[in-house]
Amino acid sequence: WCASTLHPALYRIRMTPRIHPDATTHEAIRRSAVQELTTQLAVASKALRDGEWLMGRHWCLADAYLYWVIERVLASQADVVIDPALQPWRERCAAWPAWARAVRQDT
Q: What is the pTM (predicted TM-score) of this model?
């Protein structure tokens, strides 16, 4: 789901000229991707209502991938709707030791 749906939609928002060389198509491509990400992030929000992490009580790699996607969406300033209920989960992800180590190594 992260690699097959979220990441491609994010790519269409951030790298639109690589998707299609005709600049007149870029806005429609972005709009479609924004709509898809908004829909999919609502799915994530619903999944997180039942547990602390995407898979329930335990952190999994999908949490890291989803967190990365959301942070890239926010950095792109796209009009993707992100449920405020995801904020506590985002804070848990940012505080996750493995994520903190990865961020330190990347900077």
A: 0.87
